[in-house]
Amino acid sequence: MPDNINNTRVRELTFPNYPIGCDAKWLWPTILEDSLSANLYDWLVDTGSLTARLKQYGQKFTVEILSEGNYPLSDDEKTKLNLTGNIGFVREVLLKVDGTPWVFARSVMPINTLTAPGGELDKLGNRSLGSVLFSAKDMQRSEIEIAEFDEKSNVYSLSSLFNTLPKKSLFGRRSCFLLSGKSLLVSEVFLPAASAYKE
């Protein structure tokens, strides 16, 4: 388990290894639109900065690192990033509003993306990745995909450690970003406490 996990309850996590991952059946948003509330769908397809939006919902926005380093990537992630190698830089964090985890975020990138101008993306510390991406003038973003995470998923199990608001399943989105011509894949799963689930 990574040494930099600083949440006591996360330390007790019994997953066999880290990172947690974001394995899911990723779909175009329109496929699930009719089965989701208008509010949740709006959060999933919003193309603006998630960091900026979360900051509107509380007095304090914070980032907690769960795992960060060079790890094997899933076949799906390698395909999205057009990679042939198995190893990439992976960063998994919790995005918190007033101390409550609202989002689990996983960022995956080729090793050479770390050196993108404005980046040093492996040295973000407790800053959000969005603070870098959305301040870059040349940033480009691909179309958003969304997915459902049921009780069998690691992300769902993680959420049960610090949420007392059970959900049948959780929902998340992902997209690729280009930063100075270098690519990274960002996945964000809304946890039960997030306003995304409020009607």
Q: Would you give an account of this structure?
A:
By secondary structure, the protein is of the alpha+beta class. The protein has one domain (30-197): Chorismate lyase (3-Layer(aba) Sandwich), CATH 3.40.1410. It has 7 helices and 7 strands, in the order H-H-H-H-E-H-E-E-H-E-E-H-E-E. Strands 1, 2, 3, 4, 5, 6 and 7 form a 7-stranded antiparallel β-sheet that branches. The longest helix is centred in the first third of the chain and has 8 residues, at 38-45.
CATH architecture annotation: 3-Layer(aba) Sandwich
Work out the strand percent. Answer: 25-35%
> Low-confidence parts lasting 5 or more residues at pLDDT below 50?
1-13
**Per CATH, what is the topology?**
Chorismate lyase
- The fourth-level CATH homologous superfamily is Chorismate lyase-like
Q: How many helical elements?
A: 7
Protein structure class: alpha+beta
Give the number of domains: 1
Number of strands: 7
Mean pLDDT: 84
Helix content: 10-25%
| Strand and helix order | HHHHEHEEHEEHEE
> What global shape is seen?
globular
**Biggest pleated sheet:** 7 strands, antiparallel
Note the gap between the termini: 37 Å
